[in-house]
Design brief:
single chain, 308 residues, 8-stranded parallel sheet, two-stranded antiparallel ribbon
Length: 308
């Protein structure tokens, strides 16, 4: 089966692509010119084999789409004319209600349902989220990712997963570096505690590798529950304790690399993905590529070779 290629909008966040000098400048410009932002992203995708889009945190988020086009239906029509479509939307932790707060469940569900309704209208079926971040190693009092914590997360995931299914949308969990769904053990525990009818997995090959895990082994163990996967490469495991704060994502950047230039076993990963429910989409994630068109072309070449 020939896969369909997709990418996360974060691929286009590099300031150099926009002729600007910082990530803040990109966000500010896109906030003022949301339609121009999306038109440039779509024009760039037209130069590649990528036809699927994963919405993400600002400026490539749901609210930016609504400012630019007025509605999900109008955005869908714009994408249709270019042979593009939305495949998923990612909920960034800082842009949604905090799962650690026990009184937040109504707000968490309402936020997820709003996103799921948008996805249904735009023709997509996957809402991707993650679990809360860990704290910096050595912080006092310590925060433990134990059975009690994961059981609470599973309870919330069930409620949210059931709510979005009423919109025809699946809830899939992303294996983010330094989150409480990072290590292989985290993933196995969370999957064991959650109902496969309502909770799906979105493994990220890079982030699993950064935690010292084996992305291929994770994919093989949890294949029947993989609704989507992020194809990303890593230079090697993160072997130091990074500070978990607003700069954590920038701190992770040096450990990420273009597909085929790192440690991920792409042949093994592709083989493990083939029987999964999400096999028909290959989502290539390239955080802030300076030349996203060239990077996506190179990435699709690596993925095609692995899939063949």
């Amino acid at each position: 089966m020939t896969p369909r290629f997709a990418t996360d909008v974060v691929t286009f966040y590099h300031p150099g692509f926009w002729g600007l000098d910082s990530a803040d400048a990109v966000r500010d410009w896109a906030l003022r010119h949301p339609r121009r932002f999306w038109e440039r992203v779509m024009d760039a995708l037209a130069e590649t084999a990528v036809t699927g889009i994963e919405l993400t945190f600002a400026p490539g988020d749901l609210d930016s789409v609504l400012r630019a086009f007025g509605s999900a239906a109008a955005f869908r029509r714009e994408l249709d004319t270019r042979g593009l479509s939305v495949v998923s939307a990612f909920i960034a932790g800082g842009e949604a209600p905090d799962w650690r707060r026990g009184d937040n469940l109504p707000a968490i569900v309402a936020d997820a349902e709003r996103r799921a309704a948008f996805l249904a209208e735009v023709g997509a079926e996957l809402l991707v989220t993650g679990l809360p971040m860990r704290t910096t190693f050595g912080t006092r009092p310590p925060f433990f990712v134990d059975a009690a914590y994961m059981a609470r997360m599973a309870d919330i995931a069930h409620v949210v997963g059931e709510a979005v299914t009423r919109h025809g949308v699946k809830l899939a969990f992303h294996t983010e570096s330094h989150s409480t769904l990072w290590y292989e053990r985290d993933i196995d525990l969370f999957m064991a505690l959650t109902d496969p009818r309502y909770v799906w997995l979105c493994p990220d090959s890079c982030h699993i590798a950064l935690g010292g895990g084996d992305p291929v082994a994770v994919a093989r163990r949890h294949g029947p529950r993989i609704a989507l996967a992020h194809w990303k490469d890593a230079v090697g495991p993160i072997d130091v304790h990074l500070t978990v704060d607003d700069t954590i994502y920038a701190q992770q950047q040096p450990y990420m690399t273009a597909l085929g230039t790192g440690i991920v076993d792409w042949q093994g990963w592709a083989d493990a993905m083939t029987p999964t429910p999400g096999a028909d989409i290959v989502l290539i994630e390239l955080d802030e590529a300076a030349d996203p068109v060239a990077a996506l072309r190179a990435g699709t070449t690596v993925a095609r070779k692995a899939r063949s």
